[in-house]
Design a protein that fits this description.
By secondary structure, this protein is an all-alpha fold. The chain is built from six helices and no strands. Helix 1 packs parallel to helix 3 and helix 2 runs antiparallel to helix 3. The radius of gyration is 21 Å and the shape is elongated. About 20% of the residues are buried.
């Protein structure tokens, strides 16, 4: 075996491990047994597709990072890390604790614009004196 084939097998093994951990995470989050079965069937197909086409594996890591970071109130930057370092980012993200809703590090434009927007004008006019 050459070094490159060993490295490719190691990387593919990391992708499979990342998808398995993602499946466990989703199974814990979802309550419906149909959803759990669907997730595991999707993971089997994802592993097969990632083996045949690398771009599919990268897309799956980004999508999985988006899902997990939303559930854990984490930053959207994890999706970029999922693209750059793939399953390592996903494994780290699953291992991190969930942040409280007020502690969110999300880079969503909606949350930023709401926090920096001026307060809304008061409703109604001045009181009418009789």
């Amino acid at each position: 075996m050459t070094i490159t084939s060993v490295a490719l097998q190691l990387i593919f093994g990391l992708y499979v491990a990342g998808l398995i951990v993602f499946g466990i995470f989703v199974s814990r989050e979802q309550e419906s047994s149909n959803t759990k079965v669907g997730v595991w069937i999707g993971i089997v197909f994802a592993v097969i597709l990632a083996f045949l086409w690398t771009a599919v594996g990268l897309g799956m890591m980004v999508a999985a990072c988006f899902y997990v970071e939303d559930k854990k109130n984490r930053s959207r930057m994890w999706a970029i890390l999922g693209l750059l370092i793939g399953p390592i980012a996903l494994l780290l993200l699953v291992a991190l604790p969930k942040l409280d809703a007020g502690d969110s590090l999300s880079l969503s434009l909606n949350s930023w614009s709401e926090s920096s927007a001026p307060p809304p004008p008061p409703q109604g006019g001045p009181p009418i004196e009789k």
